[in-house]
Amino acid sequence: MTTLGLDIGSRTIKLVVRENGAVVLTRKELTSYDPLAVCRELLRNAPGGPLVATGYGRHLIKEYLRCETISEIKAFALGARAVFPSCRTILDIGGQDTKAIALTADGRIDKFHMNDKCAAGTGRFLEIMATALGLSLGDFMTEALAAETSHPINSMCTVFAESEVISTIARGTARPAIALGIHQAIAARAVSLLERVSITEDILFAGGVALNRCMQREIENKLGRKVHAPPDPQIIGALGCALLAANNV
Amino acid sequence: MPFNVPDVKPLIEDEFVGEAAKRALQYIQTKRAAGMPVAGIYCGYAPMEVIRAVGAVPAILCAFANKTIAAAEAVLPANLCPLIKSSYGFIITDTCPFFGISDAVVAETTCDGKKKMFELISEYKPMFVMDLPQLPDEKEALANWAVMITKLQGFLEKTFSTSATPEGIEREIKATNIKNRLMNRVFDYAAKKPSLLKWSETYELAFLAQVATTADLQPIFREVFKTIEDREAKGVHYGTASAPRVLVTGCPVGGDSTKVYKIIEEAGGVVVAMDSCTGMKPFMTEIEENTGDPIAAVAARYLQLPCSCMTPNTRRLDELDKTIACFQPDVVIEVVLHACHSYNIEAYKIMNHAKSKHNLPYLKIETDYSDGDVEQIRTRVEALFDSL
Lengths: 249, 388
What we know:
Mean pLDDT of chain B: 96
Helix content of chain A: 40-55%
Distance between the termini of chain B: 19 Å
Helix content of chain B: 40-55%
Number of strands of chain A: 10
Number of helices of chain A: 9
Mean pLDDT of chain A: 92
Order of helices and strands of chain A: EEEHEHEHEEEHHHHEHEH
Oligomer: heterodimer
Order of helices and strands of chain B: HEHEHHHEHEHHHHEHEHHEHEH
CATH class of the largest domain in chain A: Alpha Beta
Strand order of the largest sheet of chain B: 2-1-3-4
Shape of chain B: globular
Number of domains of chain A: 2
Low-confidence stretches of chain A: none
Radius of gyration of chain A: 18 Å
């Protein structure tokens, strides 16, 4: 049986296709100004089957595909257990949201907490900070990983943080130190969100920001615990949708 | 989220269905045309019994629209509560019809933002600012508040060239008690499982009941109870029996911020209890009758209102216990307006109380009157319902 999961995020749209219990296809594309067109493109030539959608754009696609939609919390809870069955806590840092989800031993949602509605400390924040430092996202992480000292960044509002970074550059602070300071500020915010739901191991780190090894290291340092980032952390929500689509049949 | 049958008769069947403010405006205009002075009010601490006893009709002033905020921000800081910005914007753009027909304005020092905003609008109309004691359990609080209410009486008498008697205030106390009992009977139907009322019906009735006299409300109450009893007899109810029942607590919710109620419904929930100054709070508790000192009785009742401006505000937790027992919600959602520090900080206590004492999931929504955050709020509310 073939089922599909679509996660229409604020920055990236992810498609997962499962066939007979295995993932056979994953696709990712930037959300752009026309997420519906991107969804159509992702679904073109993909195998057909029941589809479940999640993410910010889920209500948009619901009109066109008559598919079931679920919240990201539910999608991530299902997807996380599929890639990491012993997972009890999920940290997801996406394009504009950060979520901490605590699961019961049998995988049900116990508690969850999301960041306030602003995008402070999310993937979008990292992108803007990298741009302010004149770096690509990859180089931004590499510089931060290699930094020997860190310069603390205090503002968490994207606009204020950008001003703070610019004035820190103007004072002659080394770029790697600023890059690390930004990573540490976001890590502290993520950890405080995790602490609100109570942290039980094992901890899974998902979402686009989980591709950032410096962020993983800094979160582990702050928590004093191991945090597991799966090989493809961006598809967890879409995978959860594909799993639910299979359960529904 | 609909009723379980089509074409349900609205709770108040008139030409103002869905337009609570217009219905109230027409009521006040009728009273004014009959010669009654109008006292504009901003808050649930305005002692209605004294306003009525001096022969005035109260008008709740506009404070809930996004459209006036841009004008307000030309003067006020952007990082201020939207309710204060909206109120001020309405006045400087001269777009609040209630303010336009007010002969005087009653204001209270419930927070710093309002207090300083009142200074900026004090030129427009005769205004009386009441110094609200914020440590309600101190023994001086009651006496001080009673003095303020007496001073308000004097201000209104002088401004309106009328006078109130202790007997008149006592009559208004009794009338308020009758009204509050009737309103609580209506709320009991919202508390039924499943609920017999849509949130907007309760909201509209509460809006009118704050300004109208008990006598004028009697025919409306008769119709309302007939309608509800008819619904009950025919098995009409609102939403599905399995829909999550939501208790909404926190800042006043009205006009543009009712977006939160709408999102809750679109996500499949039913708002059964509105624990705020635009919902059930104005009708809570009875005023003691026949004390021989009606001003003191009025003062005692208003000091019991559990606004977050009070410290400590233990009454809010006690009242929450009663509301939860009566309405049996599945979740508690708190609405905090941007920059309302007292509700925002107190939210921590409410969250712990809901979770630990009542084992209820809790979600805090911090918002303003714009619609820019509708999808973010929707994601959080849907996730909350998914986790049930």
